[in-house]
Design a protein that fits this description.
Mean pLDDT of chain B: 95
Largest interface: A-B, 46 and 44 residues
Number of helices of chain B: 11
CATH architecture of one domain in chain A: Up-down Bundle
Strand content of chain A: 5-15%
Strand content of chain B: 15-25%
Oligomer: heterodimer
Order of helices and strands of chain B: HHHHHEEEEEEEEHHEEHHHH
CATH class of one domain in chain A: Mainly Alpha
CATH architecture of the largest domain in chain B: Up-down Bundle
CATH superfamily of one domain in chain A: Butyryl-CoA Dehydrogenase, subunit A, domain 3
Structural class of chain A: mainly alpha
Radius of gyration of chain B: 22 Å
Bound molecules: flavin-adenine dinucleotide
Distance between the termini of chain A: 10 Å
Helix content of chain A: 40-55%
Number of strands of chain A: 8
Order of helices and strands of chain A: HHHHHHEEEEEEHEEHHHHH
Radius of gyration of chain A: 20 Å
Strand order of the largest sheet of chain A: 1-3-4
CATH class of the largest domain in chain B: Mainly Alpha
CATH topology of the largest domain in chain B: Butyryl-CoA Dehydrogenase, subunit A, domain 3
Mean pLDDT of chain A: 97
């Protein structure tokens, strides 16, 4: 039934990209840096962002005709995974989503104008969610947008609007929008809300491409989020294991206590499963229908894996786990915020049930 | 030598024609479920037939009853068995554990004596490791073996001995030295005969109400000294090697399967048929959610298996996936059984044999039987210790 979706293909380039991205993020995003950025207004380091652009990472899934690298969506996964593992803040995901939205939903003029810029480091984002809390991207009132990541730093915002009674996508330059920062639970990210300004015909993306573009955004968002969360889950388990190997109570290293050891093993198994499903999803993402199934499975699993790993991590750090200084809270918050974006695990399972039963 | 392709085609045709259908009694799904003489005789005949057709031990040397072909040949035969849903191979402990152990480490004489009977199912084997007081703590086994001339005298008891009542031989872990510097050093490993004075087996009824294993009592039972495998005091090493065959960490098994693998997604089929509270189970959103969670888990296990073949994707912890797979799969199977019962709603209250039961109580029974694997072969808790200590590097629990 879904057996064929368990197959994993990894190109040599993806393997190299993964090594490269892991080294890069380890180097650029040590935990002290992650913490320093928590209180930074912009929330990421523009120099590191420029380096990512120089490495070509922003153009990975943009065709060569638009000055991208012309690689595949699957090739983004190793980068997103590494960023998730090292909690590295950057507008990578929001910019990639905007690029995919334009690639699949933009006019030739819009593509020609924006894709080369996004490939070379211009920050962009997507505005899809509204106060209603609907995860269905088609449910749009078009008044207020929320959960718009990196909106302040963006030069362009791809937003859903209501136009002549229809849901449409529009590409609005940031300088026509007044954004207000939101307080979100994941402090490694920056989120904004804004009132949708009047759109002109010029802003609008072609009506006949709207549905395909929204599907694409959702697919790519869920894939990248799976990568981010699965990377973070691995790191979170490692973080817990380190503590379990060093902290002593009752004259023993606490990792010797099975009440801690066994749940940590379960968290590890979940994280390993999330990784495997992630690579499977990357392998099948471009297949019509199958892509959505593989990606939602990976996403639901990754959300569960990180939530559990981080929840137990807080508990297993004792009093220190309750502090702001313990990194367990960072991981827990990443998972909590992820659940608010594009659907939580139960939402994905409900969609999967519709697709599979 | 016949090509693998030709051999595979032959096997496919053979199993298509010879796989028994419409057997009038409940077919054991694993070698641990052989509870009646009828089942036993049937499965012994079946293994013998498969062996004579050349589809078991195809890669073992001809001197020891094998087919003299290659592992690839045997794998093709095993695949054909699976494809046609053939019954399991009965002599699991011979085929899978004792056999490869003897083939790899036994003397020429031992190989000639034991291996042909393992393949033909004339000689059933059992495993005498667990004792009433020493299970997970296998290294503490206390069954006493005292050397007396060219014999050892056995006293004590083994328990949970699968097919113990049918076995001709037992791979036995016994204590030959009670003053050894540590508990492991006092152990020795024997290829012990079972049909001798002083050995008695008592069937133990399982939670399903059926039979399948025994307690085995040894009272001044005398076995030839040359049934010792390896050296006296070297039993722990041999036992550990045996567990590697058992857990699939080491190859060389005679082939076939001794546990019929149910497709992890089979429960989806049940969900489509089952009724709950008078309505199709699939209309219940909670059931849908649980079913999808279970499907995702099944998918994760399949993807794990795929990933384990791709070096760059396992380089951080190369042994993690094979080491966690027993725990993951057996717990998954148990949870699937639980879910199946919920899907069945009120029908979950019937059991095998009742006309109102769904699929003749298959899921009720398979849920209960699922514990054989979460307990046998090292419990899930012991598996978590192993993964925690050997994969994650956590300190030992002592
Ligand atoms: C169907 C079936 C077939 C079997 N066939 C055979 C056979 O053919 N030959 C044979 O020798 N044995 C056989 N066994 C025995 C099996 O290997 C043991 O039952 C198993 O190793 C557990 O030992 P025990 O029963 O003594 O339980 P115990 O070791 O007493 O365990 C009791 C509980 O304590 C837990 N526990 C024990 N130690 C620890 C620890 N260190 N940390 C955490 N938890 C712990 C266990 O997980 C379990 O939940 C079979 C068992 C089953 C169920």
């Amino acid at each position: 039934m879904t057996h064929h979706l368990a197959k994993i293909a990894l190109t040599e380039m993806q393997a190299e990209l993964r090594d490269q991205a892991m080294k890069f993020c380890a180097d650029k995003s040590p935990i002290a840096k992650v913490r320093a950025l928590l209180t930074d207004e912009r929330g990421y380091d523009p120099d590191v962002w420029q380096e990512m652009a120089d490495l070509g990472w922003l153009g990975i899934a943009i065709p060569e005709t638009h000055e991208g690298l012309g690689l595949e969506l699957a090739d983004i996964v190793p980068v997103a995974e590494a960023m998730g593992k090292y909690l590295m803040a950057s507008p990578f995901i929001s910019t990639t989503l905007a690029a995919q939205a334009i690639l699949f939903g933009g006019s030739d003029r819009q593509k020609a104008e924006w894709l080369p810029k996004l490939a070379s480091g211009t920050v962009a984002t997507v505005a899809l969610f509204e106060p209603s809390g609907a995860w269905d991207l088609d449910t749009v009132e078009g008044e207020t947008k929320t959960f718009v990541l990196n909106a302040d730093a963006a030069e362009i915002i791809v937003t859903t609007v209501r136009h002549d009674g229809q849901t449409r996508l529009a590409l609005i330059p940031r300088d026509r929008i007044e954004v207000e920062r939101e307080t979100i639970i994941d402090e490694t990210k920056r989120s904004y809300r804004f009132d949708v300004p009047k759109v002109t015909e010029d802003d609008l993306m072609p009506a006949d491409l709207t549905a395909a573009a929204l599907d694409r955004i959702e697919l790519v968002a869920n894939l990248m989020q799976s990568a981010e969360l699965s990377g973070a889950a691995m790191a979170c388990v490692d973080y817990t294991v380190d503590y379990l190997k060093t902290r002593k109570q009752f004259g023993k290293v606490i990792g010797a206590f099975q009440a801690l050891k066994h749940p940590t093993v379960d968290a590890f198994i979940d994280a390993e499963g999330a990784r495997s499903l992630l690579y499977a999803a990357a392998t099948h993402v471009e297949k019509q229908g199958d892509g959505e199934i593989a990606v939602r499975m990976a996403n639901a699993k990754a959300q569960g894996a990180l939530s559990y790993a981080a929840d137990r991590s807080i508990q297993f750090h004792g009093g220190f786990g309750f502090t702001y200084d313990c990194d367990a809270q960072l991981y827990r918050r990443v998972a909590m915020f992820a659940a608010s974006q594009f659907g939580d695990a139960a939402f994905h399972r409900a969609r999967l049930a519709e697709l599979l039963l | 030598m016949i090509s693998v392709e030709d051999f595979a085609a032959g096997a496919d045709a053979w199993f298509a024609e010879h796989t028994p259908r419409d057997v009038p009694f409940m077919m054991p799904l694993t070698f641990m479920e052989v509870g009646t003489d009828e089942q036993f005789e049937f499965l012994r005949d079946w293994q013998n037939t498969v062996y004579k057709a050349g589809y078991l031990g195809a890669h073992w040397p001809t001197d020891y009853g094998g087919g003299g072909l290659t592992q690839k040949h045997q794998d093709a035969a095993t695949r054909a068995m699976r494809k046609h849903g053939a019954p399991i191979m009965l002599n699991a402990i011979g085929i899978g554990w004792a056999g490869p152990l003897i083939l790899d480490t036994g003397t020429e004489e031992e190989k000639r004596k034991y291996l042909p009977g393992i393949l033909s199912a004339d000689d059933i084997w059992c495993q005498g490791f667990s004792e009433p007081d020493n299970g997970s703590d296998l290294g503490n086994a206390q069954l006493k073996a005292v050397r007396d001339g060219d014999e050892y005298v056995l006293n004590g008891s083994k328990i949970w001995t699968t097919q113990g009542n049918y076995a001709k031989y037992m791979i036995l872990l016994a204590r030959t030295d009670f003053d050894a510097p540590n508990k492991y050093a006092g152990l020795s490993f024997f290829l012990a005969p079972m049909r001798i004075p002083g050995v008695e087996t008592t069937k133990i009824r399982k939670l399903t109400g059926e039979y399948g294993f025994t307690q085995t009592f040894f009272t001044d039972a005398r076995i030839p000294a040359d049934t010792l495998m390896g050296e006296e005091g070297g039993g722990w090493k041999v036992a550990m090697r045996t567990l590697e065959y058992e857990r699939g960490a080491r190859g060389g098994q005679a082939g076939g399967y001794t546990i019929s693998q149910t497709d992890p997604l089979e429960v989806v089929g049940l969900a489509k048929r089952a009724m709950r509270n008078g309505k199709p189970a699939l209309e219940d959103p909670v059931m849908r959610d649980r079913l999808m969670a279970q499907m995702i888990e099944a998918q994760a296990m399949m993807a794990n298996r795929e990933r384990s073949k791709i070096m760059p994707l396992v380089q951080e912890k190369p042994f993690a996936l094979p080491m966690l797979s027993k725990l993951q799969f057996t717990e998954y199977a148990r949870e699937t059984g639980e879910l199946a019962l919920e899907l069945e709603g009120a029908q979950g209250g019937y059991y095998v044999g009742d006309e109102a039961s769904r699929e003749d109580g298959y899921w009720q029974r398979s849920y209960l039987n699922a514990f054989s694997a979460t307990i046998g072969g090292g419990t899930s808790q012991i598996q978590r210790n192993i993964v925690g200590e050997h994969v994650l590097g956590l300190p030992k629990t002592r």
